[in-house]
Specification:
The protein is α/β, with parallel strands linked by helices. 35% of the residues lie in helices and 22% in strands. It has helices at residues 15-28, 53-61, 82-86, 93-101, 126-133, 147-160, 178-191; strands at residues 2-8, 33-36, 39-40, 44-46, 49-51, 74-75, 107-115, 137-142, 165-171, 196-199. Strand 8 (137-142), helix 6 (147-160) and strand 9 form a beta-alpha-beta unit. The two termini are 13 Å apart.
């Protein structure tokens, strides 16, 4: 089964936007997509239940067929790392893997929470989840100032952990200078031999589908 694990150089860099864009593009092509953010923090309470805004966005982008645990397994209110937000709740990485393995689809997109070293349990972080899922990595970073350093450092540690990186995607904000973003993407591509994409529209992600 084809799939990607989407991680970021930091929190708030555009992982959900990139994951949702991939899901929507693939769905428009007739692909059955499972767009899954198993753990989300910073969730809002609605009618007595926690709702993950990122999880909902991914479900909508994939066509709205996911329900129950297929929307997301863990939701926490505090906007902090999962290990800190979970409190007494035990996050089971094996349950995440089982949910993925038991869901029939053509493409699985699994979005992590935060960056590569964000702690999930007392002994496991996002890299452990990525290795368990065993999909190529899509690394999402900012397009603006600081992204060269953050992206290259993340690539180094992902490689050292033995994971394959399918692509780096720099996510442009409306306030970003496009020439500057292009220069950052070019410099990362000069220093790293893999695929570097600048997300200015959904077409730029077609090479991953």
């Amino acid at each position: 089964m084809k799939g990607y694990f989407i991680t970021g150089t930091d929190t708030g860099v555009g992982k959900t936007f990139v994951t949702a864009t991939l899901a929507q593009r693939a769905t428009e092509r007739g692909t059955r997509v499972f767009a899954f953010k198993p753990i989300e923090t910073g969730c809002l309470e609605v009618a007595g239940e926690l709702v993950g805004a990122d999880q909902q966005l991914l479900v909508e982008a994939a066509g709205g067929w996911q329900t129950g645990q297929l929307v997301g397994l863990y939701r926490f209110q505090d906007p902090v790392a999962p290990w800190m937000a979970a409190g007494e709740t035990a996050i089971d990485l094996g349950l995440i893997k089982t949910t993925l393995d038991s869901t029939a689809c053509d493409l699985q997109l699994v979005e992590g929470a935060g960056g590569w070293r964000v702690p999930i349990t007392a002994t496991e972080d996002m890299s452990d989840l990525a290795r368990l899922v065993d999909f190529p990595i899509v690394l999402v970073g900012r397009a603006g100032l600081g992204t060269i350093n953050h992206t290259l450092l993340s690539l180094e540690v992902i490689s050292r952990d033995g994971c394959e990186v399918a692509a780096v995607v720099l996510s442009c904000l409306p306030t970003d200078s496009l020439p500057f973003a292009r220069a950052n993407a070019a410099e990362i591509a000069r220093r790293w031999t893999g695929c570097v994409l600048l997300l200015t529209d959904s077409l730029s992600l077609d090479s991953l589908l």
